[in-house]
Specification:
Order of helices and strands: HHHHHHH
Helix content: over 70%
Radius of gyration: 18 Å
Bound molecules: fe (ii) ion
Mean pLDDT: 93
Largest sheet: none
Shape: elongated
C-alpha cells in the first residue's frame, strides 16, 4: 500500500538525518566530520525526494483535495513545503562546500543551516504522519488508490522503478556503512 511505503521511506529518511546529525555533532565539538558521509547524505536528499517520494505524496494530496478539501486545507501547501525543503538543502550543500573550499564561514552559521534542515525535515515528516496520511486513509476511496498506483507506474516502466528503488536502497546502505566506519575510527 502506498501509505505504508511512504511511511517506510520516512524511516529511511530519518536514518540519514540521524547520520547527518551525528556528523554535525562531530563538527560542533571542533573535530573534522567525515565529509564523504556528509556529501553522500546531501546527494541522496538532492535526488531521492523529488525523484521518488514527493511525486507519490503529491498524487495522494491531489486526491485528498478532491475528496476532503477541508482536510487538505488544514494540511496546507504540501508542494510549497517540499520546495522549501529543497531550498534548505541547497543552503546545506552550499555551506558545506564553503567549508571545504576554506572560505571563511562561522562555525555557528554552519551549525544553524544544517540544523535548520534537519529540524524542518523531521517536522515535515511528523506532520505528514500525524495529519496528512490519516486524512488520506480516511478520505480516499479504493479507486483513488488504484488510480494513484497506476499513474505512478504509468510514468515509469515498473522494472525501471524497481531498479531505481534498489539503487536507492544500495546508496543508503552504503552511507550507513560509511558512517559506521567513521564512528569506529573516531572511537
Ligand atoms: Fe512530504
Ligand atoms: Fe514525506
Amino acid at each position: 500500500m502506498i501509505i505504508d511505503s511512504l511511511r517506510q521511506e520516512h524511516r529511511n529518511i530519518e536514518k540519514l538525518l540521524l547520520v547527518l546529525e551525528q556528523e554535525l555533532s562531530v563538527f560542533d565539538r571542533g573535530e573534522r566530520p567525515d565529509y564523504e558521509v556528509v556529501r553522500a547524505v546531501i546527494s541522496y536528499f538532492e535526488v531521492y525526494p523529488d525523484a521518488y517520494h514527493h511525486p507519490q505524496e503529491d498524487a495522494v494530496f491531489k486526491k485528498l483535495k478532491a475528496r476532503d478539501p477541508a482536510a487538505a486545507a488544514n494540511i496546507g501547501d504540501l508542494a510549497a513545503e517540499h520546495r522549501s525543503g529543497a531550498e534548505r538543502l541547497r543552503r546545506v550543500a552550499q555551506v558545506v562546500e564553503s567549508v571545504l573550499t576554506d572560505r571563511e564561514v562561522l562555525r555557528q552559521t554552519v551549525d544553524d543551516i544544517i540544523r535548520d534542515f534537519i529540524v524542518h525535515e523531521r517536522r515535515h515528516i511528523a506532520m505528514e504522519e500525524r495529519d496528512f496520511f490519516p486524512a488520506a486513509v480516511k478520505a480516499l476511496q479504493p479507486q483513488d488508490w488504484a488510480e494513484i498506483a497506476s499513474t505512478l507506474t504509468d510514468q515509469k516502466d515498473p522494472l525501471f522503478s524497481e531498479i531505481v528503488e534498489e539503487r536507492f536502497d544500495a546508496v543508503r546502505r552504503h552511507i550507513l556503512r560509511l558512517e559506521q566506519e567513521a564512528e569506529a575510527d573516531r572511537a
